[in-house]
């Protein structure tokens, strides 16, 4: 199976392997190319963008506390609590 680097859809050129020149040639040939400045994001894309905004950075002092507790043997791991948290995350994702 061969995968072409260009698309017959002018809206995908420049994104899926095409070049800007491909888009320009489609525009010159009469294909409809929109020059919208607004983009509608899906809820999942908005969620990913929010995760990437820097507000979810690692709290290094908390990481150090956990590391120290692990080294000293004071860290108590509750597998049931971890499993409950994972199941709750999966339920949220499936909604």
Automatic annotation (TrEMBL):
Coiled-coil region: none
Keywords of the record: Bacterial flagellum biogenesis, Cell projection, Cilium, Flagellum, Repressor, Transcription, Transcription regulation
Region (Disordered): 1-36
One Pfam entry name: FlgM
Occurrences of domain Anti-sigma-28 factor FlgM C-terminal (ranges): 39-87
Entry annotated with the keyword Repressor: yes
Biased composition (Low complexity): 24-35
InterPro entries listed in its UniProt record: Anti-sigma-28_factor_FlgM_sf, FlgM, FlgM_C
Biased composition (Polar residues): 1-11
Signal peptide: none
Family statement: Belongs to the FlgM family.
Record function comment: Responsible for the coupling of flagellin expression to flagellar assembly by preventing expression of the flagellin genes when a component of the middle class of proteins is defective. It negatively regulates flagellar genes by inhibiting the activity of FliA by directly binding to FliA.
Name of the protein this chain belongs to: Negative regulator of flagellin synthesis
Organism: Castellaniella denitrificans
Upper classification of the organism: Bacteria, Pseudomonadati, Pseudomonadota, Betaproteobacteria, Burkholderiales
Gene: flgM
